[in-house]
Structures are given as structure tokens and as C-alpha cells.
Amino acid sequence: MNTDLVLQLTLQGFLMGGVYGLIALGLSLIFGVMRIINFAHGEMMVFAMFLTITFLLSLGLDPYLSLPITAAIMFGIGYGVQRIFVNRILDMPEAMQVLVLVGMGIIFENCTLMIWGGSDISPKTSLALSSFRLGALTVDVPRLIAFVLAILITLMVILFLKKTSIGKTIRAAADNRFGALIVGAHIHRVYGFCFGIGAACVGAAGTLLVPLMPAKATMGAPYTLISFVIVILGGMGSLFGALVGGLIIGVAESVGTVFLPSSMKQVVSFSIMIIILLFRPQGLFGGKG
Amino acid sequence: MNRLYILLGIILAVLLFLPQVLNNYWLEIFILIFYYAYLGQCWNVLSGYTGNISLGHALYVGIGAYTSTRLAIVFGLTPWAGMFIGALLAMAVGLFIGFLGFRFGLRGVYFVLITISFAEIGRLIALHMDSLGSFMGLFLDFRPGFWNMQFKGNLPYYYIALGLLLFSVVVVRAFEVSKIGRYLVAIREDEDAAESLGVNTFRYKMWAIGLSSFMTALGGTFDANRIFHLSPERVMSMGMSIEIILRPIIGGMGTVLGPIVGSFLITLPAEWTRAYFSEVGRPGLHMVIYGFVLIFAVFFFPRGVMPFLNRVFKPFFIKHSSPGDNVRDL
Hints:
The complex is a heterodimer. By secondary structure, chain A is mainly α.
């Protein structure tokens, strides 16, 4: 085994892990506040990727510039989905919740398919192939930018939840829904905001992935699953855990390709998930189980 | 209850004679209805009665299908025997997953996630094993004959699927009224209370997952010998697991007739929209409608269709219904 190769893979996985963390942040936020697992998460991300590509191809907007627009649109969609659909299932048994969100996933995936078709699209972006060398390692510029932006957005969301008044209301609702209602929190608006922020996070992550890989309408499901793994690893509802979990899974999958075929790298992450579920179901940073 | 059994008998008689008047396309639809109702019934044993939602039942379908097919290809073993070997193998895997899940006390979302993980690992392994045909999958040679479980035309498959479904209904009904079934319902309603009354919850949940995985695998063999092709994407994907759980949830979990009602309700619209919109040339639109159907089914029947049917038809079937009667009677 070649040390340079392992180092290179570790670096690539670490950079990718930042984006993974941003994807999982949205899922973790939605679960932590509403106790709902968003089975449509990956499909929402792919939808955002295609939005970004449309901005790029029709308006010539670079993904890094259109990121706020895409995130805002995804926020609106997430807010709407919560108010119209998810709001009605909050008190239903789990099986029913799963069914509705799986239905949402099917709708998102096939809307993408209908609007943009089923083929791979990899548009040319300004920095797509640029890279620089760092000792023996090669660093992709778009990957580095994606990493930095993903970490920045994650920290901003965490700061938003810690400092602002709506953020504090969201955390209060997550802690104790009934208590938040008593002190006058507008719980439905809070939930809508929360789902919107979750969707905006995953939308931003989708935008950051556009320069890195070809987009395909049906590629969402693996991302849904990988964000489950990250959220379990970091702790359901723990925002910081989502970030760290994303970095760990990014590195583990990337280094896993040294001894497994690359399409089997997910075996590593699912094995991690099983072990965490059995021995530490509250995750690395989760408070309660 | 008698009138209900008479009605079910009439429906069964109609189904037995139905192929005489159906064309090939409708036979296919009915086979799909029976097949998915059967798989839903198998899932129902575990998830409907114990309340532990499994989202990885495609794994057992895959194990059943691949085992019997591989045995038929290598040793020339008839699928009629191979299906039981596959079922035993699936049961062993199911018991292993159940052991981990139940022994470590995973409930709710956590149990869902562990079943997903095992199913995905299984799919990825099948995707990379050359002896299982890797991503191309296995192709079965077409050698019609009873012992090969391969036939020309859909008629024999119709009766096999109907037989499987009847078998599952009888097994699940016997299971439901047995002591174990009662324990399982108690576990679903309140696991801690059941345990404190001395029910060995772990043992009975193991019974449920063992039976469920065994029966699911039998369905896999049937499917393999009908389609003549197996691939991890078709039989072991997450999508397959979702297909399995849709019908019993919409029909009504924890009821014997729920998966069948759900299958009649969902399979037809799914096929129709698919046929219609693929002609019009709008890929994806039928699935969007399908997604909305699922969502609105949950909104209108939050506990499934069966409790609703029970309320409407119960006065007809049961003359002296006391106020305390549970809707679970049908």
C-alpha cells in the first residue's frame, strides 16, 4: 500500500466530508426538531443541483454566485412542503410518516426527471479542472472551495440557531414542544422555518457538488442513505455531530476504496452505521438516546 | 363472522375461475396484485403485528431468488426444493438481524435504519459477486416444465401466485389467533407493559422475524422463475423494500386482509398510470401521480383502509356487535 495514495484519498475524503456534513446538517435539524426522518433528502439535493445547472446554462451564473438563489428557492420549497404535507403527519405512527416522505421523495425525483430528463449532465464551470500541488498531494480547487463554503455555511447555521431569536425558538421547540407552545411560540411557523432551513442546507450542498460530479436525476437515493449514516454517527439532532460525522464518513469511504472496489465503498459506511446503532445509538455527540 | 367467511369463499371461487375470462394483460396484473399482496402479508407478520418497521425486506426476496436460481443452475435442483433452502437461508439472516436489533433494544427509527443497512450491504455484495452475475444479474434459461417452475403463458403463474397468497393468509390468520399472535399485538401496543406481565418479548419477536423472512424468500423464487432474470437493482434495491411496505400500510397494518386490500388499491393505479403516460410520452409523470396517491392515501386513511372498511361493513357481518368490540375482528 502506497502512503501517498492513502494520504491523497484521505484528503479528498476529508474535503468531500465537509459537503456530506452540510447535507446531513439539514437532516439532523429536521429530525431534531420534528422527529421526522426526511426520506426525500437526497432527492431534494438533486433537485437543487439541477436548479443550479439551469442557472449556469441559461443565465451564465457561476454555481458559487447562484448558491444563495438556489438556497432561497429550496428554503421556500421546504417551507411549503412542511406547511402543506409534513405538518399533518407529525403525530402519526412511524410507518405513515415514512410513507408520506417516501412519497415526497418519489415526487421530487420524478419532477426532476420530467423537467430535465434522465441523462447525465456535467456542465463546464470556471474552475472545474484547476488544481494545485501541495507536496506530494494534488488539491482540486473546486473541491477545496466546496469544503470551505460547506464548513462556513454549517457554522453560520449553527450560529443562527444559537444567537438569533427565531433560532432560539427552533431549539426551544426541539427541546420541549409543549413548553414552547405554552410560552407562545408559533409552532407551525417554527417547524416550517426549520424544514426550510434543512432544505436550504441540502440545496446549498447540491450547488457545491455541481462542479465536482455529473448530475443525474436518479442519483438521490444513495445521498439520502449516506446522510442517515452521518446523522446516526454524529447523533440524531446534534448539529455539530453532523459536521464531524460527515468528515469521518467522507474519509472512511474514500480510504475504503484502497481495499474495496469503489462502488462498494458504501459497505464501509453501512457497517459503521450498524456498529453505532448497536453500541452507541445516541451517536458520538448525541445527548439522549 | 359466518357471512364474512361466505363472502371470502365467494371471492375465492371467483378468483379461481377468473382466468377463463381474462386476457394475458389482465392475468399479468392479477399476478402482480397477488405477488405484492403476498410479500406485504409476509412483511405484515413482522411489522404489522410487532410494530417494528422493516425497510429491508428486499434482502430476503433477493436471498430466496438467488439461492434457488443458483442451485438450479449449478446442481439442476428443482426450484420447488430450492425455494425452501433459500427460505431457510433467509430465515437465518433474518434471525441474525432480529437478534442484533432486538437484543440491543433498537426500536422505532433505529430498527428501520438497521434493516436498511443490512439490506444495502446485501445488495452491494450481490452486486459484486461474480457467481451471482454481479451487476448484470443472473439470466435463467427458459426450460418450460413443472419441475423447473417455468411455464409458457401466465396461467400457471396466476395459480401459483394465488396459492402463495392463500397460504400466507392461512398462516397469518392461524398465527394471529394463536397465543404468539396475541403476545405480539400486546408487544406492539405497549412493549414494556407486555414484558412486565411476563411475556418473553424477545422470543416472540424472533418468531415473527423468522417466519416473516422465511415466507418472503419463497416469493423471491416465484418472481425469479416468472421474469427469468435477477439483478440486485430489481429484486434487492431500496425501491423494492418500499414497494413491499406500501400495500400493507395503505391497506391497514396488523390486519390479515389489509395487504390484500392495499394491493388491489395500489397495484392497479400504478400499472394504469404507467401504461397511460408512457404512451403519451411523459417519463416520470406517472410516478409523480403515484407519489401523490401515496401521500393522500395516508391523509385520508391514517390507519389504513381496513379500519374504515370495518366500520362500514361490520354491522352487516356481525349482528351483535358490542360497543367494546375491536376493529381488529375482520
